[in-house]
Each structure stands twice: as C-alpha cells, then as structure tokens.
Design goal:
6 strands, 49% helix, disordered N terminus, 16% strand, alpha/beta, Glutaredoxin
Length: 188
C-alpha cells in the first residue's frame, strides 16, 4: 500500500513538473507570418529583424550605440537568461508582442550571466524576431538599472530615456502589450 502511494506521489510530481513547463513552450508564428507582419518596417527596425535570434557581442558600448541608433522609436529591452525559469515562461509573450508591434517598437534582448551555447539553445527553443546582446558580467544591465532581477524589462521612450522598469515575468502577451502601449506608445 505504501509503495502504491509513493508511485502516485511520484507520478503526481512528474505531471506537475511537466504541467509547469507546458506553458513555456514556444508559440512563435510561422516565418511567413513574420515576414508579412514586418514588410515595410523602417530601416532601423528592419535591421533588428534581420538579426533575429542572434547573440551579439560588444558589451555596453555596442548596446548603447544600438540604442542611440534607435532614437525616434520606442524600445523595449528584455533581460533574460537560459537558466531562468520565469524567462522561459515569459518568452512566448515576447514572441507574440514583438511580431504584433515590431513595425513601430524596437525590441532588444540582453542575455545576462549566461554561457553562449546555452543561450543559443534557448533561442532555438524560443525564437524571437530580434537580437540579444551578451552580458555575462551584467555591464549592460547595470547601465540601464536592470541588474537586480531575472527577467527584467526596461522601456525607453522615443528620446532614448528610460521611462519604466518591470521586474519579473510577463505572463501574457496582452499584459506586455498593455505596458508597451501605456509607457512608450502613448507618448507619440
């Protein structure tokens, strides 16, 4: 009887564990849908789209240069890591929001405290339409006041000023899009 209870308990834990991961599966739209959504994107945003899923080096200097090149567009920066469970939970929201708003909002990832092979594997599982800068020592994260939590999302207005920081995961694309509209699209 005790062994049956143990089997039921182990099976229940296994189901619970797989159930937690089930919400984190990629929901990336098909490539054709992405191409259609981004057709006619302004050149600075098209440049981001052309670097989808890439891990970019260069540290804080390269990141700041990219931000400067995106002046005139709202920018959403998501700090994530392959080892971060909540990051896996929120990536489907970023997949959807980046496609829905990618013709008017710049999305950039910052991959912190991670190893490039693990980060590349993560992006293969959870593809996004924008690049991520590698940030193993969190120099980029510190420069945008995002070094505390994983994940963290920082919003920059069209003038390149940080206007909002969201600590923790977004659980839905609608919550993410609501914040994007509230903090960076409402101030045209």
């Amino acid at each position: 009887m005790a062994s049956r209870a143990l089997i039921v308990a182990v099976a229940s834990l296994a189901l619970l564990a797989t159930g937690c991961g089930a919400t984190a599966h990629s929901a990336a739209p098909p490539t054709g849908a992405v191409d259609t959504a981004f057709k006619g994107s302004p050149p600075p945003l098209a440049s981001l789209h052309s670097q989808a899923d890439q891990l970019l080096a260069g540290g804080a200097a390269a990141f700041k240069a990219r931000l400067a090149g995106l002046r005139g567009y709202p920018v959403v920066v998501n700090k994530w890591a392959s080892w971060c469970g909540p990051c896996k939970t929120e990536f489907p929201a970023f997949q959807r929001a980046a496609v829905a708003l990618g013709r008017e909002v710049a999305f950039i990832g910052v991959n912190g405290k991670d190893h490039n092979p693990a980060a590349a594997s993560f992006l293969h599982e959870f593809p996004v339409t924008y690049p991520s800068y590698t940030d193993p020592n969190e120099s980029i994260a510190r420069s945008i006041q995002a070094a505390t939590f994983y994940p963290m999302t920082v919003y920059f207005n069209r003038q390149g000023q940080s206007v909002y920081v969201h600590a923790g995961p977004y659980l839905s694309a609608s919550a993410l899009e609501r914040d994007i509209r509230s903090y960076v699209l409402s101030s045209k």
